[in-house]
Amino acid sequence: MKKIVQLICVALVTISIGCKPNSQTSVENEASSVDMSNKTVDINQLYQFYYSNPSNLDEREENQIIDYIVDKNLAPTRSVTGLYYQITQEGTGERIRPGDQLEVHYTGRFLDGRVFDSSVDRGNPLKFKLGTTGLIMGWLEGLRYMKLGSKMTLVVPSRLAYQSRGFGSMIGPDTPLTFELEIIKMN
Protein backbone atom coordinates (compact mmCIF):
# COMPACT_ATOMS: atom_id res chain seq x y z
CA MET A 1 0.00 0.00 0.00
CA LYS A 2 2.85 2.40 0.84
CA LYS A 3 4.41 1.74 -2.56
CA ILE A 4 1.10 2.47 -4.29
CA VAL A 5 0.71 5.74 -2.39
CA GLN A 6 4.30 6.68 -3.20
CA LEU A 7 3.73 5.84 -6.85
CA ILE A 8 0.65 8.06 -6.82
CA CYS A 9 2.69 11.00 -5.65
CA VAL A 10 5.57 10.22 -7.93
CA ALA A 11 3.10 10.05 -10.80
CA LEU A 12 1.84 13.53 -9.87
CA VAL A 13 4.66 15.45 -11.58
CA THR A 14 5.79 15.96 -15.21
CA ILE A 15 7.28 18.99 -16.98
CA SER A 16 4.86 20.74 -19.26
CA ILE A 17 4.65 23.83 -21.39
CA GLY A 18 1.53 25.61 -22.50
CA CYS A 19 -0.82 28.48 -21.88
CA LYS A 20 -4.40 29.17 -20.90
CA PRO A 21 -6.34 25.89 -20.81
CA ASN A 22 -7.83 24.85 -24.12
CA SER A 23 -9.25 21.41 -24.59
CA GLN A 24 -8.89 21.67 -28.37
CA THR A 25 -5.06 21.75 -28.40
CA SER A 26 -2.32 19.95 -26.57
CA VAL A 27 -0.05 21.64 -24.06
CA GLU A 28 2.89 21.19 -26.41
CA ASN A 29 1.10 22.87 -29.33
CA GLU A 30 0.20 25.85 -27.19
CA ALA A 31 3.81 26.46 -26.21
CA SER A 32 4.90 27.60 -29.64
CA SER A 33 2.52 30.56 -29.73
CA VAL A 34 2.54 32.02 -26.21
CA ASP A 35 4.47 34.37 -23.99
CA MET A 36 6.50 31.91 -21.92
CA SER A 37 6.90 34.11 -18.83
CA ASN A 38 5.13 33.19 -15.61
CA LYS A 39 2.93 35.84 -14.04
CA THR A 40 2.42 36.52 -10.35
CA VAL A 41 -1.22 37.51 -10.08
CA ASP A 42 -3.24 39.18 -7.38
CA ILE A 43 -6.86 38.30 -6.78
CA ASN A 44 -8.13 41.04 -9.10
CA GLN A 45 -5.84 39.85 -11.90
CA LEU A 46 -7.04 36.27 -11.50
CA TYR A 47 -10.33 37.17 -13.03
CA GLN A 48 -8.68 37.77 -16.41
CA PHE A 49 -8.50 33.96 -16.56
CA TYR A 50 -12.10 33.47 -15.36
CA TYR A 51 -14.71 32.33 -17.88
CA SER A 52 -18.16 33.91 -17.63
CA ASN A 53 -19.70 31.06 -19.63
CA PRO A 54 -17.36 28.06 -19.39
CA SER A 55 -17.97 25.79 -22.34
CA ASN A 56 -15.51 22.95 -21.73
CA LEU A 57 -13.70 21.07 -18.98
CA ASP A 58 -10.58 23.26 -19.01
CA GLU A 59 -12.64 26.43 -18.63
CA ARG A 60 -14.76 24.95 -15.81
CA GLU A 61 -11.61 23.76 -14.01
CA GLU A 62 -9.93 27.15 -14.39
CA ASN A 63 -12.97 28.74 -12.70
CA GLN A 64 -12.90 26.13 -9.89
CA ILE A 65 -9.20 26.77 -9.33
CA ILE A 66 -9.65 30.55 -9.25
CA ASP A 67 -12.52 30.18 -6.77
CA TYR A 68 -10.26 27.96 -4.60
CA ILE A 69 -7.40 30.49 -4.73
CA VAL A 70 -9.72 33.35 -3.77
CA ASP A 71 -11.34 31.32 -0.96
CA LYS A 72 -7.92 30.38 0.46
CA ASN A 73 -6.58 33.93 0.02
CA LEU A 74 -3.53 32.69 -1.90
CA ALA A 75 -1.22 34.93 -3.93
CA PRO A 76 0.17 32.48 -6.48
CA THR A 77 2.15 32.75 -9.66
CA ARG A 78 0.39 31.35 -12.72
CA SER A 79 2.74 29.57 -15.08
CA VAL A 80 2.17 29.53 -18.80
CA THR A 81 0.86 25.97 -18.46
CA GLY A 82 -1.91 27.01 -16.07
CA LEU A 83 -0.15 25.64 -12.97
CA TYR A 84 -0.58 27.91 -9.96
CA TYR A 85 2.23 27.87 -7.40
CA GLN A 86 3.13 29.87 -4.34
CA ILE A 87 6.44 29.56 -2.55
CA THR A 88 5.51 29.83 1.13
CA GLN A 89 9.08 29.44 2.40
CA GLU A 90 12.13 30.20 0.30
CA GLY A 91 14.88 27.59 0.44
CA THR A 92 18.62 27.95 0.06
CA GLY A 93 21.14 27.07 -2.62
CA GLU A 94 20.49 26.22 -6.23
CA ARG A 95 17.15 25.35 -7.75
CA ILE A 96 16.29 21.71 -8.19
CA ARG A 97 17.37 20.14 -11.49
CA PRO A 98 16.65 16.86 -13.25
CA GLY A 99 18.88 14.15 -11.80
CA ASP A 100 18.77 15.54 -8.24
CA GLN A 101 17.98 12.95 -5.57
CA LEU A 102 15.14 14.40 -3.46
CA GLU A 103 13.25 13.73 -0.27
CA VAL A 104 9.94 15.56 -0.34
CA HIS A 105 7.20 15.83 2.25
CA TYR A 106 3.80 16.47 0.71
CA THR A 107 0.11 16.59 1.44
CA GLY A 108 -2.27 16.12 -1.48
CA ARG A 109 -5.81 17.46 -1.29
CA PHE A 110 -8.86 17.82 -3.44
CA LEU A 111 -10.09 21.40 -3.90
CA ASP A 112 -12.75 20.75 -1.25
CA GLY A 113 -9.95 20.25 1.30
CA ARG A 114 -10.15 16.47 1.70
CA VAL A 115 -6.71 14.89 2.01
CA PHE A 116 -6.14 11.97 -0.36
CA ASP A 117 -2.49 11.32 0.55
CA SER A 118 0.16 12.69 2.90
CA SER A 119 3.77 11.70 3.54
CA VAL A 120 3.62 14.07 6.51
CA ASP A 121 0.85 11.99 8.14
CA ARG A 122 2.88 8.81 7.52
CA GLY A 123 6.09 10.45 8.77
CA ASN A 124 7.85 9.14 5.67
CA PRO A 125 8.98 11.57 2.94
CA LEU A 126 8.83 10.52 -0.69
CA LYS A 127 12.33 9.71 -2.04
CA PHE A 128 13.06 9.85 -5.75
CA LYS A 129 15.50 10.96 -8.41
CA LEU A 130 13.94 13.79 -10.39
CA GLY A 131 13.49 12.88 -14.03
CA THR A 132 13.65 9.11 -13.57
CA THR A 133 10.19 8.54 -12.12
CA GLY A 134 6.64 8.98 -13.35
CA LEU A 135 5.63 12.15 -11.53
CA ILE A 136 2.68 14.19 -12.72
CA MET A 137 3.47 17.19 -14.90
CA GLY A 138 2.36 19.67 -12.23
CA TRP A 139 4.91 18.33 -9.73
CA LEU A 140 7.76 18.28 -12.25
CA GLU A 141 7.07 21.86 -13.18
CA GLY A 142 6.56 23.05 -9.60
CA LEU A 143 9.68 21.34 -8.26
CA ARG A 144 11.90 23.26 -10.66
CA TYR A 145 11.01 26.50 -8.83
CA MET A 146 12.14 25.09 -5.46
CA LYS A 147 15.40 24.88 -3.53
CA LEU A 148 16.46 22.82 -0.51
CA GLY A 149 14.20 23.78 2.40
CA SER A 150 11.57 25.40 0.17
CA LYS A 151 7.89 25.00 0.90
CA MET A 152 5.33 25.48 -1.83
CA THR A 153 1.62 25.30 -2.51
CA LEU A 154 0.67 23.90 -5.92
CA VAL A 155 -2.78 24.09 -7.48
CA VAL A 156 -2.75 21.64 -10.37
CA PRO A 157 -5.37 21.43 -13.12
CA SER A 158 -6.28 17.87 -14.06
CA ARG A 159 -4.50 18.12 -17.42
CA LEU A 160 -1.23 18.51 -15.45
CA ALA A 161 -2.22 15.73 -13.02
CA TYR A 162 -4.07 12.49 -13.83
CA GLN A 163 -6.18 13.87 -16.67
CA SER A 164 -9.22 11.84 -17.74
CA ARG A 165 -7.79 8.54 -16.45
CA GLY A 166 -7.73 9.51 -12.75
CA PHE A 167 -5.80 7.28 -10.37
CA GLY A 168 -7.59 4.11 -9.36
CA SER A 169 -10.39 4.66 -6.88
CA MET A 170 -8.42 7.34 -5.01
CA ILE A 171 -8.55 10.19 -7.57
CA GLY A 172 -11.35 10.44 -10.08
CA PRO A 173 -10.95 11.51 -13.69
CA ASP A 174 -10.55 15.21 -14.53
CA THR A 175 -9.86 16.21 -10.92
CA PRO A 176 -7.83 19.33 -10.12
CA LEU A 177 -5.60 18.85 -7.07
CA THR A 178 -3.63 20.91 -4.59
CA PHE A 179 -0.38 20.01 -2.87
CA GLU A 180 1.76 21.34 -0.06
CA LEU A 181 5.39 20.41 -0.82
CA GLU A 182 8.54 20.71 1.26
CA ILE A 183 12.03 19.78 0.06
CA ILE A 184 13.57 17.93 3.02
CA LYS A 185 16.77 16.67 1.42
CA MET A 186 18.56 17.14 -1.89
CA ASN A 187 21.70 15.40 -3.19
Write the layout of secondary structure elements.
Elements: H1 2-10, H2 27-31, E1 39-40, H3 43-46, H4 57-71, E2 77-78, E3 84-89, E4 92-95, E5 101-110, E6 115-118, H5 119-122, E7 126-129, H6 137-143, E8 147-148, E9 151-156, E10 177-186
Antiparallel strand pairs: 1-2, 2-3, 3-9, 4-8, 5-6, 5-7, 5-10, 9-10
Please describe what this structure looks like.
The chain has helices spanning 2-10, 27-31, 43-46, 57-71, 119-122, 137-143; strands spanning 39-40, 77-78, 84-89, 92-95, 101-110, 115-118, 126-129, 147-148, 151-156, 177-186. The protein has 187 residues and is α+β, with helices and mostly antiparallel strands. It has one domain (2-186): Chitinase A, domain 3 (Roll). The strands form two sheets. Strands 1, 2, 3, 5, 6, 7, 9 and 10 form an eight-stranded antiparallel sheet that branches. A two-stranded antiparallel sheet has the order 4-8. A hairpin with a 4-residue loop joins β5 and β6 (115-118). The protein is globular, with a radius of gyration of 16 Å. The two termini are 27 Å apart. Mean pLDDT is 82; it is low at 1-36.
